[in-house]
Write a structure and sequence with these properties.
Blueprint (H helix, E strand, L loop, with lengths): L47 H4 L19 E4 L4 E4 L22 H10 L3 E4 L4 E3 L20 H8 L32 E4 L13 H5 L26 H31 L20 H20 L1 H9 L14 E7 L8 E7 L6 E7 L10 E7 L8 E5 L3 E6 L7 E6 L4 E5 L13 E2 L11 E6 L8 E7 L3 E7 L4 E8 L7 E2 L5 E2 L5 E6 L6 E6 L3 E6 L8 E4 L5 E6 L6 E6 L3 E6 L7 E4 L4 E6 L6 E6 L3 E6 L9 E4 L8 E6 L5 E6 L4 E6 L18 H16 L11 H5 L1
Length: 729
């Protein structure tokens, strides 16, 4: 036979060729040759056997775009592993078919299900006949095909036997049936009729027998689309809480209204059936203006936080790294500055933090120059969330000298003392945003007031009947207790401050006692009926609300007016005082001499104990500097002295520590409040012992202060040391 190479797949059906002279055809490589063969001059001379040698050609597919050295990192084996070489095949379409062979078990089952018959032979082979395409059932005759009588006779008789060696033929035409002939043996064949399924007479279908299925119909309708509106509301936890409170109050009002109707119906005589319609009481809706102001307030806070984002990060996270290299020194980091445009020419006379909301504080604006009395004052409430504008503003008819938040469950009440001797109480609970129109309570300007400026106000304990009270001290030598009732603000005299000297003779034989001008007041942390009063003469008096004309103790504290008095939070027997004589003094109850005295070289505007440490306190002076002391680190000098404002232009007047955060706010005489963050060295806390009993932070602070006091206290009775010579003799 001729040699053909398998790799050659040329179509030679239409290529003409001519035989050689000897009548043979040389079709090596499947290509007929002509009479003359062109041979390349550099071709090799091969023999006939070498030319007829069959050479197998192998085609290898090499895809240059597929990488062959791909590795991935295996986290299980902790190393890079090689990825198998990807296949060169691309699947363009994958479709799973539903056809199966007629000789398979599935094919036989399908034919039986469709009612066709199988031709079984004795040899065990199955042949499927579809030449008639008839379902043979019991009691029915076979339907003849459409073509002639021959097919009919073949259908009525036995099926014809096919001759071995012949292949089945398929003829496909329009309207003609497809005949399939399988090779069978000469043995007899038999017809396998499908078994008739016995139906259960008790099975019935309610849907087919009892009801009529309505045909499905499509009806197209066209309607106007529902109206759309864009709604944007802020949903927070407190808004949800207020909504529940309003709904609960609405339900309670409805219940009370129903009870009243039932009582009225029971008391009145029955006059026949009556039909009454009651209109439901709708809860009071918030005015649109208030909601707009609240939304603007939220937007303003967001803008301020984005504008001063760096300062906010410093307040929250920054710590001075230089404190690691200096053990007894610290720094104050300036943060925000708070001011109000209408109060730029006023003095900051008072600062106080809200006891519940640690990011809110109140500022009182007035004047310390009493040669030119001011006819206006202001109280502003600032928040750390909005540093550009106060949250609430209250304009007053006189300069503000002091303010104080209520510390016992009602932090929305603010007591204000004015320079004309009046006091007022404001409430921010139901006040509109950014404005406090009128005070909730106000003293009478004729008789029910002080005769001079009110220098200090402090909230006291509530009365047994639930009425709230606050105390005020003034330069008219009187200390008043103000009782806030439902309808009015009444006062009672607590004590008249008099100098401990002999009375002077007056006209008509009357003696006149010299009075003292009160400037500061501080209440005992645990005993609410005990308080200290500082005067312009420099004396400090310990008084009680139970005695109207008796001092419990007296200290000759300063040579100039006392500006502030503050109790220690960890030890109520320790308090400090500051005055215009440049000195800060630490006192202990029942001791006439101070434990510590510090001279700062300038009149002191304000001083206060730190809430985080029992031995730390701070003070501000009129030369624009802030001083921070820690007696456990240095008992003689301050550990931080920092200038905050220019010395010649302005002076510092007051300060206040934040009760939770390591920061302090300072006010000056130009209406600006500066916030400062304490470095880590200024707020060190004692470390608990590694072994032994576990102490609370409060106990550690008390122990630290007690250890310090034991070094400076003098014994009440001095005992002379024994004489060694007399003892030995």
């Amino acid at each position: 036979p001729p040699v053909r190479q398998k790799s050659s797949k040329l179509n030679l059906s239409n290529v003409p060729f001519r035989p050689d002279q000897d009548g043979s055809i040389d079709d090596i490589d499947g290509i007929p040759k002509g009479k003359h063969l062109l041979k390349s001059p550099d071709a090799l001379d091969l023999t006939e056997e070498e030319l007829k040698e069959e050479i197998t050609r192998v085609l290898v597919i090499n895809h240059t775009n597929i990488p062959d050295n791909v590795v991935v990192f295996s986290h299980r084996e902790k190393r890079f592993t090689e990825v198998p070489y990807p296949s060169n095949h691309y699947v363009l379409m994958h479709d799973e078919g539903s056809c199966f062979h007629i000789d398979s078990e599935e094919g036989k089952a399908q034919l039986k299900m469709e009612g066709r018959y199988n031709i079984k032979t004795e040899s065990g082979t199955d042949a499927v006949s579809e030449d008639e395409g008839v379902n043979v059932e019991e009691g029915e005759e076979q339907t003849p095909p459409e073509e002639g009588g021959e097919d009919k006779e073949d259908a009525e008789g036995e099926p014809e036997k096919e001759v071995e060696g012949e292949e089945p033929e398929e003829e496909v035409g329009g309207g003609e049936e497809t005949e399939t002939k399988n090779v069978v043996s000469d043995e007899s064949v038999q017809l396998d009729m499908p078994k008739k399924k016995l139906t259960n007479q008790f099975n019935f279908c309610e849907r087919a027998a009892l009801t009529y299925n309505n045909p499905q119909r499509e009806i197209e309708t066209q309607t106007a689309p529902p109206p759309r509106a864009t709604l944007a509301r802020l949903v927070t936890q407190w808004i949800i809480h207020d909504a529940y409170e309003e709904d609960y109050a609405h339900q309670q009002r409805l219940k009370e209204l129903e009870k009243k109707k039932e009582k009225a119906a029971a008391g009145a005589a029955w006059t026949g059936p009556t039909h009454q319609t009651t209109k439901a009481i709708e809860p009071a809706q918030e005015p649109l203006t208030t909601r707009m102001l609240r939304a603007a307030k939220t937007l303003e806070r967001m803008m301020n936080q984005n504008t001063y984002e760096e300062i906010a990060h410093d307040f929250k996270y920054w710590e001075d790294p230089s404190d690691e290299y200096r053990e007894e020194e610290g720094t104050l980091l300036p943060l925000w500055k708070f001011y109000y445009d209408r109060t730029r020419k006023m003095n900051v006379t008072a600062l106080t933090w809200n006891p519940r909301y640690n990011d809110m504080f109140a500022v009182g604006y007035g004047s310390f120059d009493f040669t030119k009395p001011s006819n206006e004052g202001c109280v502003c409430l600032f928040s750390l969330k909005n540093t550009s504008h106060p949250e609430y503003v209250a304009s007053l008819w006189s300069g503000v000298c002091c303010i104080d938040f209520h510390p016992h469950g009602q932090p929305y009440l603010i007591a204000v003392g004015l320079s004309d001797g009046n006091v007022a109480v404001y409430s921010i609970q139901y006040a509109p945003p950014h404005m406090l129109d009128k005070p909730l309570y106000r003293s009478d300007s004729v008789a029910n007031k002080h005769a001079s400026a009110v220098w200090q106000v402090r909230w006291g304990s509530d009365m047994p009947d639930g009425e709230i009270t606050f105390f005020s001290v003034s330069s008219d030598s009187s200390v008043f207790c103000w009782i806030v009732s439902n309808n009015e603000l009444s006062r009672t005299l607590v004590i008249n401050l008099t100098l401990p000297s002999d009375p002077l003779p007056g006209p008509d034989g009357v003696t006149i006692s010299l009075t003292a001008c009160g400037t500061a007041v501080a209440f005992h942390p645990t005993e609410q009926n005990i308080f200290l009063v500082g005067t312009e003469e420099g004396r400090i008096y310990k008084c009680s609300t139970a005695y109207a004309s008796l001092y419990l103790s007296t200290w000759d504290g300063h040579h100039m007016p006392v500006h502030h008095i503050d109790y220690n939070m960890y030890n109520p027997t320790i308090f400090l005082s500051c005055g215009g004589d440049w000195r800060i003094k630490i006192w202990e109850d029942n001791r006439s001499e101070p434990l510590f005295v510090f001279d700062v070289g300038s009149p002191i505007g304000d001083a206060a104990w730190a809430p985080y440490s029992s031995t730390s306190f701070a003070a501000v002076t009129w030369d624009g500097r802030a001083h921070v002391f820690d007696l456990s680190i240095n008992k003689y000098h301050s550990i931080c002295t920092q200038a905050l404002v220019p010395r010649r232009r302005s002076r510092l007047t007051t300060l206040a520590f934040n009760p939770k955060q390591p920061m302090v706010i300072v006010g000056d005489d130009r209406g600006i409040v500066s916030s400062l963050k304490l470095s880590p060295n200024l707020r060190k806390r004692p470390k608990p012992p590694k072994k032994g009993v576990i102490y609370e932070p409060m106990q550690l602070e008390m122990a630290k202060l007690e250890k310090l006091l034991s070094l400076v206290r003098e014994p009440s009775v001095l005992q002379a040391p024994p004489d060694n010579e007399s003892v030995t003799s």
